[in-house]
Design brief:
single chain; alpha+beta; four-stranded antiparallel beta sheet; about 50% strand
């Protein structure tokens, strides 16, 4: 497991959020999926990187 940081994401209303969130995952795509699963109002993850 690696640590990924979600840096930018868009909610269902089209508003961008820039507060960083960390996610434990095996890959970048898994990290994005986990973030979307825990943030029900997340439409898309726009920025993420490995910590």
């Amino acid at each position: 497991m690696d640590t990924y940081v979600i840096t930018v994401w868009t909610d269902l209303n089209g508003k961008m959020h820039t507060a960083p969130s960390t996610v434990q995952a095996g890959s970048l795509s898994e990290a994005k999926a986990k973030f979307k699963a825990t943030h029900r109002d997340c439409k898309t993850v726009n920025g993420a990187h490995k910590k």
